Amino acid sequence: MRLQATAGIRAWYRTFASAGSLVTPFGSAQAILTPDRADRSLLNAVVYDDPADVPLGELAAFFAPVQAWCVWVQPGHDDLARACEARGMVIDGTPMMMGGELGRLDLAARDVPAEIGAGTWAELGAINDAAYGLPAEHFAPVMRRLTTDGYRLAVARRDGAALACAGALLAGANAHVVFVATLPDARRQGLAAECMRSVLRAALADGCTTTTLEASAAGEPIYAAMGYDSLGRYRMMEARATTADS
């Protein structure tokens, strides 16, 4: 399942080429550079297949135009983590790699106080910015330019207002879940979880057999209750420019 998880995040990042990001291979690594969000390492990032084939020096030069970038160091790849640390990179986050077989997940629809329907990137962008305490129009402009090819998007709406969302990128037989979020005043109503179930039921109907995601600490127990297994923690090793670097 770890192979599906790493392939899923790699496929997700490739879709950002449709939004104007530069996606470039470096050895076994794939780098994405997003000039419109030069201050955010989430959109200036490196994923890889072989931890021994991640050319950090070349990558540092590639990311020179931005203020922050990161390497998603996979669970157990301690040598790569130490090599990042030796370059002054620090841990910016430790999301949990999770995955499961779609046929074994609890995808039964729940009654929730909202209508679940197909979503748009404009809605998902606005919800994610607000849900994570970011300024309006932070990630949203990039997300609005993303292709919808291969994606299933769902939004929970009440009285016409979009409150929660989830997306899944279908890549081969895997559904990689992304952009799960709920507005602060609509939390603890099961809305985002129901959006997830909606896109995963669609993925199952489209022939997917597995699903993967990266979970925050808050999301882990929710996904575990749905049937996802924990596969180990990523270390997001971040390099950030300082005033002295300018």
Write the layout of secondary structure elements.
Blueprint: H1 2-14, E1 22-26, E2 29-33, E3 45-48, H2 56-62, E4 68-73, H3 78-86, E5 90-93, E6 96-101, E7 115-118, H4 121-131, H5 140-144, E8 151-158, E9 161-171, E10 174-182, H6 191-205, E11 210-215, H7 220-226, E12 229-233, E13 235-240
Parallel strand pairs: 3-4, 10-11
Antiparallel strand pairs: 1-2, 2-3, 4-13, 5-13, 6-11, 6-12, 7-8, 8-9, 9-10
Distinct helical segment count: 7
Q: Mean pLDDT, as a whole number? A: 96
Structural class: alpha+beta
CATH architecture of the largest domain: 3-Layer(aba) Sandwich
Structure description:
The protein has seven helices and 13 strands. The protein is an alpha+beta fold and 246 residues long. The chain folds into two domains: 2-97 and 233-245, no CATH class; 100-231, Gcn5-related N-acetyltransferase (GNAT) (Aminopeptidase). The strands form two sheets. It has a seven-stranded mixed β-sheet. Strands 1-2-3-4-13-5 form a six-stranded mixed β-sheet, with helices on both faces. The mean pLDDT is 96.
